[in-house]
Write a structure and sequence with these properties.
Strand 13 (about 255) and strand 14 form a beta hairpin. By secondary structure, this protein is α+β, with helices and mostly antiparallel strands. It folds into 2 domains: about 5-75, no CATH class; about 80-335, Phosphatase 2c, domain 1 (4-Layer Sandwich). Helix 3 runs antiparallel to helix 4 (about 155-170). About 35% of the residues lie in helices and about 25% in strands. It is globular, with a radius of gyration of 28 Å.
């Protein structure tokens, strides 16, 4: 809907200006000269009534709706995550695509925080359902997670807190959230992963990419209190990148009866393996959307993160343990994947 200068010109040509003149004690509005209201002739004086015509009321409603939409967009934009990195030694690229039309927020959420000891903490989650309720709950979970990180809570403690908040804040018992928490300790040689019902991830090593499936525990709120989450340590090499995403990225249909799936997503990733971080992320989302376009497109929310220590930090950290780094680079499990 157009609401800019063109709309104001339209309103200006339809809404008449009034002057007031005194007639004894009575003051009544009268039209200004017709030339000053767009050259209206006497035949159009019926537009100068004190009350708005239905057409004018429609224009006013359109403008009010546009103003409300701008204010809502401004509010949603303020609630979007802003990664809190303390330096430039960590790489983080992202893409966030809400499934709701014209929305900026969705039930998917993520955040990135680097604490004083240089450790980088990452969260990526997906609240079930769609609409404003899921988006609001996602914001609560993200803010609670950041607070828990700054309070020094462990990954497992963080998930316990998030589950309590989800259970207290959800509108029905069927609402749950899948979450993956990743910690990158300073040094760049490992990533510690905790998954609560979340899909796997991609590990980029130069132009080689493989699917990684960490130990997966129960989704938050699915069966409250069953906290079977465990930590998985992922060995990293200096140039490695960890790619996290929500299931909306690979659940689009590519035929009437087939979804892209994990294998299809991996193939898309391999086709874009030569691209740098942000371009890789964009190509991944665009490729999935292009394949799903003939069958309704990507109907679910999508969030993607591309993460890792930059080369300078990782290389410096690798020097004391070059032998172990070389062993990681030639890990048979990786090369066979």
């Amino acid at each position: 809907m157009r609401t800019g200068a063109g709309c104001h010109r339209l309103v200006g040509s339809a809404v008449c200006c009034y002057a007031s003149r005194s007639i004894g004690r009575e003051r009544r509005p009268v039209p200004l000269d017709a030339k000053r209201v767009g050259g209206r002739t006497p035949a159009h004086k019926n537009l100068l009534a004190l009350r708005q015509t239905p057409w004018e009321a429609t224009i006013t409603a359109i403008e009010a709706h546009a103003l409300g939409a701008r204010e809502s967009a401004s509010l949603e934009r303020g609630l979007l995550p802003t990664p809190a990195l303390r330096g430039d030694d960590f790489h983080a690229a992202s893409r966030y695509v809400p499934g709701r039309a014209h929305a900026l927020l969705s039930g998917d959420f993520y955040d990135i925080v680097q604490t004083e000891d240089s450790t980088v903490h990452v969260i990526l989650g997906d609240v079930s359902g769609h609409g404003a309720a899921a988006a609001a709950l996602a914001v609560h979970l993200r803010l609670a997670w950041r607070t828990a990180v700054h309070c020094g809570k462990t990954q497992l403690e963080q998930l316990c807190i998030l589950e309590r908040i989800l259970v207290d804040g959800r509108s029905d018992d069927d609402t749950y959230a899948t979450v993956v928490s990743v910690v990158f300790p300073p040094g760049g040689m490992t990533a510690r992963i905790v998954s609560a019902g979340h899909p796997g991830l991609l590990l980029r090593r130069s132009e080689h990419i493989r699917w990684v499936e960490p130990q997966i525990g129960m989704a938050l709120g699915l069966f409250p209190g069953i906290r079977d989450w465990t930590e998985t340590d992922l060995a990293l090499s200096p140039h490695d990148r960890v790619v996290l995403f929500t299931d909306g990225l690979f659940e689009g249909r590519i035929t009437p009866s087939t979804r892209l799936g994990e294998d299809g997503l991996l193939q898309l990733a391999l086709q874009s393996a030569h691209l740098p971080g942000q371009e890789f992320v964009d190509a991944l989302v665009q490729g999935a959307a292009r394949k799903a376009a003939p069958f309704g497109g990507l109907v679910d929310d999508v969030a993607v993160l591309h993460l890792g220590w930059k080369t300078a930090r990782a290389t410096e950290a690798a020097r004391p343990s070059a032998e172990s780094a070389g062993a990681a680079m030639h890990d048979p499990a990786f090369n066979a994947a």
